[in-house]
Design a protein that fits this description.
- The complex is a heterodimer of chains A (275) and B (134).
- In chain A, 44% of the residues lie in helices and 16% in strands.
- Chain A is an alpha/beta fold.
- Chain A has a single domain, classed as 3-Layer(aba) Sandwich (Rossmann fold), CATH 3.40.50.300.
- Chain A has an eight-stranded mixed β-sheet with strand order 3-4-2-5-1-6-7-8, sandwiched between helices.
- In chain A, helix 1 (17-30) packs across helix 11 (227-239).
- Chain A is globular, with a radius of gyration of 19 Å.
- Chain B has 134 residues and is of the alpha+beta class.
- Chain B is 58% helix and 16% strand.
- Chain B contains five helices and four strands.
- Chain B has helices at 2-19, 23-40, 44-58, 94-105, 119-133, and strands spanning 62-64, 70-76, 79-85, 88-91.
- In chain B, the strands form two sheets. A two-stranded antiparallel sheet of chain B has the order 1-4. In chain B, strands 2-3 form a two-stranded antiparallel sheet.
- Chain B is elongated.
- The interface between A and B is medium-sized, with 16 and 15 residues.
Chain lengths: 275, 134
C-alpha cells in the first residue's frame, strides 16, 4: 500500500498545528485507518505531550537518521489505539540534525505500512519547514481568523504553490469564535477563505476543553460531547473523502441549541430509568 | 448614578458603533492591502516613486490635478491589479505638446509652466523628465 503523506503547517506559531495534528490523527485512527504522525519540530517537540506519550519515547527521528535504531523501533504506539503511532522529534537537537532528503526517505518507508503519514511542521519558513514539507504531497494550512495568522498562512500558501511535490493544500480555520464574529469583531470563516482563496477542509470552534484535554494528554476527539472534537472528526472524514457538511457554529453555540441538548439528555435519562 | 451613566454610555456606544468601522472590517481591509503588498512585493515607497514618474509622463499629454493622481493596488479575484486613477482636466493639443518638447530640448525650465503653479515641484519634475530622456 501507499499511504498519503500530509503535512500540517501554518507559518505562525500557536495557531494549533500540533493540536490539529494530534486530533486529526487520532480521529483517522479511530475510523480504522493506520496512522503515523511525525513530529519534525526538533528541539521544541510537543506532539508527544498532546498524545500523552511523553514517557514512552525511547528513540527519536534523529536516532533513526543517525542509525542508532531501526525505523520501526522508534515508532511509539498510542495507549488506546493500536492503529496510531508517533515518531517523536529529538528534544536536544536543532533543525539541522536532519535533512529534507532524509525526511523524504522516512516518509517513503512509512507510506508502505500506513494509510496516513501526518507531519507536524514547526513554525516559521526556514529549514524546519523545508524539511517538513519535503516528503509530503498534500498540505493542511492551519490558521485562525486573526490578521497575523492569515498573513502568515498566505505566505505559506505561496511557498506551497511553488513546491511541485505538493499536489494540493487545504485550509483549516481554528479557534473560531461565533459570538465575536456575530458582533463583527472577528473575521468570519468566509472572509478568511475569500482573502486566501483556498479550499476549506475544516472549521474548528474555540473550545475551552482543549486546555484540559492538553493537560490530560488526551486529544479532544476522544470527548464525544466536545464541539471542537466533533469538528476534528469531520475534518478526518473529509480527508478520507466523505462529503460532510460544515458545522453551523453560530447555531451550535446558541443558547437555544444548548437548552435543547440539555432537555434531550434529561428526557433520555428519564426514559431509560422508567424502562 | 453610576448605573445610569453606564446605560447612557452603552446607548451612546450603540449608535456610535453603527457609524464607525467595526474591527472586523478594519482587519479585513488592512489585511487585503498588506497581502497585496506581500504578494507583489510592491511596497508603498515604490508605489510613490512610480506615481511621481507617472505624473511626469502624463503631464506631457494631459492637464490634470497632479496631487489627485492615485496609484493603488486592488484585488481582482485571484490577481492583483494596479489601478491608476487620474482626474483629467483636459488633454493638451498637438501644438502644446510640440512646444513643450522644443522647450525641453533647449533645456529651458518652462516645460510644465502651463500646467502647474508651484515652481519648486515643477523644476523637480522637469529635471527628472530630462534625466529620463538622456
Amino acid at each position: 500500500m501507499t499511504g498519503r503523506v500530509i503535512v500540517i503547517t501554518s507559518g505562525k506559531g500557536g495557531v494549533g498545528k500540533t493540536t490539529s495534528n494530534a486530533n486529526i490523527g487520532t480521529a483517522l485512527a479511530k475510523s480504522g485507518k493506520k496512522v503515523v504522525m511525525i513530529d519534525t519540530d526538533l528541539g521544541l517537540r510537543n506532539l508527544d505531550l498532546l498524545l500523552g506519550l511523553e514517557n514512552r519515547i525511547v528513540y527519536t527521528i534523529v536516532d533513526v537518521v543517525e542509525e542508532r535504531c531501526k525505523l520501526k523501533q522508534a515508532l511509539v504506539k498510542d495507549k488506546k489505539n493500536p492503529n496510531l503511532c508517533l515518531l517523536a522529534a529529538a528534544q536536544t537537537r536543532d533543525k539541522t540534525a536532519i535533512t529534507d532528503e532524509q525526511l523524504k526517505d522516512i516518509c517513503k518507508k512509512l507510506q508502505k505500512d500506513f494509510d496516513y503519514v501526518l507531519i507536524d511542521c514547526p513554525a516559521g519558513i526556514e529549514q524546519g519547514f523545508q524539511n517538513a514539507i519535503a516528503g509530503a504531497s498534500e498540505a493542511i494550512v492551519v490558521t485562525t481568523p486573526e490578521m497575523s495568522a492569515v498573513r502568515d498562512a498566505d505566505r505559506i500558501i505561496g511557498l506551497l504553490e511553488a513546491k511541485e511535490e505538493i499536489e494540493s493544500y487545504k485550509l483549516l480555520i481554528n479557534r473560531v469564535r461565533p459570538k465575536l464574529i456575530k458582533a463583527n469583531e472577528m473575521m468570519s470563516v468566509e472572509d478568511v477563505v475569500e482573502i486566501l482563496s483556498a479550499e476549506l477542509i475544516g472549521i474548528i470552534p474555540e473550545d475551552t476543553g482543549i486546555v484540559s484535554s492538553t493537560n490530560k494528554g488526551e486529544p479532544i476527539v476522544n470527548d464525544e460531547k466536545s464541539l471542537a472534537g466533533k469538528a476534528f472528526h469531520n475534518v478526518a472524514k473529509r480527508i478520507s473523502g466523505d462529503n460532510v457538511p460544515f458545522l453551523d457554529l453560530e447555531q451550535e453555540t446558541s443558547v437555544l441549541t444548548k437548552v435543547k441538548k440539555l432537555v434531550k439528555t434529561v428526557v433520555d435519562k428519564v426514559r431509560k430509568e422508567s424502562k | 448614578m453610576d448605573f445610569f451613566n453606564d446605560i447612557y454610555q452603552r446607548v451612546l456606544g450603540f449608535f456610535r458603533h453603527t457609524e464607525q468601522e467595526n474591527s472586523k472590517d478594519a482587519a479585513r481591509n488592512r489585511l487585503r492591502v498588506v497581502l497585496m503588498q506581500d504578494r507583489t512585493n510592491l511596497n508603498p515607497a515604490l508605489l510613490e516613486r512610480m506615481r511621481e514618474d507617472l505624473v511626469v509622463l502624463l503631464t506631457k499629454y494631459l492637464e490634470m490635478d497632479k496631487d489627485a493622481l492615485v496609484l493603488d493596488l486592488e484585488q481582482d479575484g485571484d490577481q492583483v491589479a494596479l489601478i491608476l486613477s487620474i482626474p483629467v482636466i483636459r488633454a493638451k493639443d498637438e501644438e502644446e505638446i510640440k512646444k513643450q518638447e522644443r522647450a525641453k530640448k533647449r533645456k529651458i525650465k518652462v516645460a510644465a509652466a502651463t500646467v502647474d503653479g508651484t515652481p519648486k515641484r515643477k523644476r523637480k519634475s522637469t529635471k527628472k523628465a530630462a534625466a529620463a530622456e538622456s
